[in-house]
Design brief:
With about 260 residues, the protein is of the alpha+beta class. It is built from six helices and 14 strands. Strand 12 and strand 13 form a beta hairpin.
Length: about 260
């Protein structure tokens, strides 16, 4: 079973996912949570759906998944910090998903900034959206899609995407995975709000960073360049060595990163 009751029973947190909404179908869980926010839903409210008719990915891409195959959920946050810090929450969720999947005994890594990968292929997409009111954060909505029991992908995605099922041959309980993600996120978020940066998570993040020590190509539309990825700094920027003395800090959201010869 996979419904409001089974998801709620799998979540053992103080606030993250304590209120669960579930639908067989919705247009997008992010849109749904924004509506719930307008209705006064509390911090930590979680909405999950079996199917999204208009799921959203980064750069306006559509996110679709067959029924029964994936986790599609969005989490509502009502932080007190200034708006400029909110973009780092995407990395906080990426780390949390990677840690949750590691708890299932699956070797996992993160392609900066927040793509969770297994066997150098993506299993998770994250989209963070922020609503402002009079210059303050009204809400932050973090949408997360995880390929859990997906059996096939379109041909054009087969070299870039995978699922936990395809990597292990085993089916996984989506309720348990959501519970693990909420537990990891609550822990990481509470570290984040102490400093409003990633300083307390840098070590954990860099341990899982797939790009670390690898040659990468920075796809900056103005000035693309190549270098060696060293890890992230406290602001979640990717540090890239481009010469003996030169290290560039690359901001998430402004550029894309690729391995020289592959997606990672």
């Amino acid at each position: 079973m996979y419904d409001q009751n089974t998801i709620s029973k799998a979540i053992h947190t103080k606030w993250a996912g304590k209120t669960v909404h579930f639908a067989k179908e919705t247009d997008s869980t992010n849109n749904w949570v924004k509506n719930l926010s307008r209705q006064g839903a509390p911090h930590g409210t979680l909405a999950a759906a079996e199917f999204q008719s208009a799921g959203k990915g980064r750069m306006g891409r559509v996110w679709k998944a067959p029924e029964g195959s994936s986790v599609m959920m969005s989490l509502l946050l009502r932080p007190d910090f200034a708006p400029q810090y909110a973009s780092m929450l995407t990395l906080v969720m990426g780390l949390s998903v990677a840690q949750a999947v590691e708890d299932l005994d699956i070797r996992t890594s993160i392609k900066w900034p927040n793509d969770v990968v297994v066997s150098r292929k993506k299993i998770c997409g994250i989209l963070t959206e922020m609503g402002l009111e009079e210059g303050r954060i009204r809400e932050v909505v973090i949408g997360t899609g995880i390929n859990v029991n997906t059996e096939t992908f379109p041909e054009e995605l087969q070299d870039k995407a995978t699922s936990l099922f395809l990597e292990t041959g085993k089916r996984f309980d989506r309720n348990r995975l959501i519970g693990l993600v909420m537990e990891k996120f609550e822990n990481n978020y509470e570290k984040f709000i102490r400093t409003c940066d990633l300083s307390l998570m840098m070590e954990d993040y860099n341990k899982l960073l797939a790009n670390k020590g690898k040659q990468v190509r920075i796809l900056d539309k103005n000035q693309p360049f190549e270098g060696t990825a060293l890890g992230i700094n406290e602001a979640g920027e990717l540090l890239v060595r481009t010469g003996a003395e030169k290290i560039c800090a690359v901001r998430a959201g402004e550029v894309s990163v690729r391995g020289l010869y592959s997606y990672v």
